[in-house]
Amino acid sequence: MTTFEVAQFPCLSDNYGYLIHNSETGETAAIDTPDATAYKQELEKRGWTLTHILNTHHHGDHVGGNSELKTNGVKVYGPANDGNIPGMDHPLSGEETFHFGGAEARVIDVGGHTLGHIAYYFPGEKTAFVGDSLFALGCGRMFEGTAPQFWSSLKRLRDLPDDTTIFCAHEYTEANAAYAMSVEPGNELLVKRVKEIQDKRSRGEPTVPSLLGEEKLTNPFLRGDVSDEIKKNIGATSDDDDAEIFLKIRQGKDNFRG
Fold first, then answer.
1. Looking at residue 1, what is its pLDDT?
2. What would the 3-class secondary structure string for the chain be?
3. In percent, how much of the chain has pLDDT > 90?
4. pTM score, whole prediction
5. What CA–CA distance (Å, rounded) separates 88 from 103?
6. Overall average pLDDT of the 4-10 stretch
7. pLDDT digits (tens, 9 = 90+) for 136-167
């Protein structure tokens, strides 16, 4: 049974801000803080009072509003090993659990984009907030981690139930779709999804969130070990292990100009 409401709103140029709110307890958590002003406006519009900040990683477009929003007893949760998280009260590591508004939150280690990046999974709500680890049809750039680390992180997310709703932090889906089509054009489910994405964006609608089951069937960064078409198109060899295949997919996206 869902114990909180999710508010999603645009921030900065292509970030999404998220607030989760339990109407019974009155608790409200910000998932990352790209822009304090946007969060304050959303809180005021809804009549909610911020009580928690749940940071996924240390990049400025995820913690930039922490200091301004940390007032009146707001508690900041974040990754224990990921650089500076302003105002952090509760450092967290993978496999830890805590409760927010009556809901159990499980912390998942999704290091790779940054070394200590974490995701917040709420199994009772079938919801995961994944920051910049996994995107709709994509994944984050590998700024700090290694390919084996990042691939292990993505597998941890892939192991979640198919009906998990994935809230990622950016509207990158059209660009991700173009790359996905370049490496797996024979995937009929991908072709269909790309058309739906293009239609949504033409109407100015968000493509986030997405269902994990859909990502498993169409996101190339979750499919390097199962798709022969992707392996062929990114130049994988029989000597490559799964992490090396992931690295070639990631490098292909980094250099993609389609």
1. 55
2. CCCCEEEEEEECCCEEEEEEECCCCCCEEEECCCCHHHHHHHHHHHCCCCCEEECCCCCHHHHCCHHHHCCCCCEEEEECCCCCCCCCCEEECCCCEEEECCEEEEEEECCCCCCCCEEEEEHHHCEEEEECCEECCEECCCCCCCHHHHHHHHHHHHCCCCCCEEEECECCHHHHHHHHHHHCCCCHHHHHHHHHHHHHHHCCCCCCCEEHHHHHHHCHHHCCCCCHHHHHHCCCCCCCCHHHHHHHHHHHHHCCCC
3. 97
4. 0.97
5. 21
6. 97
7. 999 999 999 999 999 999 999 999 999 999 99
Structure tokens at 133: 């680890």
Looking at residue 258, its pLDDT comes to 74
pLDDT, position 28: 98
Question: Which residues are known catalytic residues?
Answer: 57, 59, 61-62, 113, 132, 170
Amino acid identity, residue 93?
A: S
| Amino acid type, 221 | F
